[in-house]
Amino acid sequence: MESCGSRAGDTLSVNSEIVEIVPSRSKPNQGIVKVRNTTVNQNGEDVQVFTANLLVFKRPAAGA
Asked: Which domain holds residue 50?
């Protein structure tokens, strides 16, 4: 993918996609979420794409 970069005055937006969720085997209240983030300019051109691995806590079970 070729990057066109961005300039002052551009309108940028970010689209995030959850790529993968992996529960922790050793800590049941945590997991790793892989997120792909794409920054797009006003012409619909990708100016930045990166993937991040996030350590997240699970929500408490309903009624807990």
From this structure: 13-57
